[in-house]
Design a protein that fits this description.
This protein is α/β, with parallel strands linked by helices and about 120 residues long. About 40% of the residues lie in helices and about 20% in strands.
């Protein structure tokens, strides 16, 4: 993705969202935020986003559910899923949600930035 693109960061942890927002903003990306999948879909209905970085484990609507809804609306939307709790989910379900990259928390910022650049 090109510098200046709009990234939607979806995580129920406000500190994690703020950290990603700070880092990505410093790299030249525009960052929007949502605290769960439902809020994220609302943001998507109001703003054109170029990529989503979504936490897997969230209340109301987890990252898998969000990704399925987002890809149904925008099949071309790149989605990076992140989690510290992948062992609680079936890998096939994660991959079937249409994600483009999957990263473990704590995030390796170099790997995250490389994934963003490649998608």
């Amino acid at each position: 993705m090109k510098i200046g693109g709009r990234i939607l960061v979806i995580d129920d942890n406000p500190e994690a969202r703020e950290l990603l927002k700070t880092i990505l903003s410093e790299k030249g990306y525009q960052v929007l935020e949502a605290g769960d999948g439902e809020q994220a879909l609302e943001v998507m209905s109001k703003s054109l986003i170029h990529m989503a970085i979504v936490d897997l484990d969230m209340p109301k609507m987890n990252g898998i559910e969000f990704s399925k809804h987002a890809k149904a609306a925008r099949p071309d939307l790149p989605i990076i899923m992140v989690t510290a709790y992948s062992q609680f989910y079936v890998p096939a379900d994660i991959l079937a949600s249409g994600i483009d990259a999957f990263l473990q928390k704590p995030l390796d910022l170099g790997r995250l930035l490389k994934a963003i650049e490649q998608l």
